[in-house]
Design brief:
mainly alpha, flat, 91 residues, single chain
């Protein structure tokens, strides 16, 4: 199965599970299934994981800033982008 299809299936299963959780928590099992669907841990797989981290951080930064405006800790995303420049590449 191509990695994109495996990823879509893992995300769909995770969403279903989160809907059933009263707090909307993504459990460890589903996180691992998503990470596994990104492929082996070669350079391309690491780029995919880095892109996932960046996309995830972007989605929650505005929420974080509203709740904790003085805490700049989550802005590590910019460091990740600088440290792993190929994370922005398609893969």
């Amino acid at each position: 199965m191509p990695w994109a299809e495996a990823l879509a299936q893992a995300i769909d299963r995770a969403r279903e599970d989160m809907r059933g959780d009263p707090r909307g928590v993504l459990d460890r099992v589903h996180r691992h299934l998503i990470w596994a669907a990104l492929g082996v841990r070669d350079a391309q797989g690491r780029r995919r994981r880095a892109r996932l981290a960046i996309i995830s951080a972007r989605r929650v930064l505005s929420i974080w800033e509203r709740h904790w405006p003085k805490n700049r800790e989550p802005f590590w995303e910019w460091w990740v982008r600088e440290a792993v420049p190929e994370a922005g590449e398609q893969g």
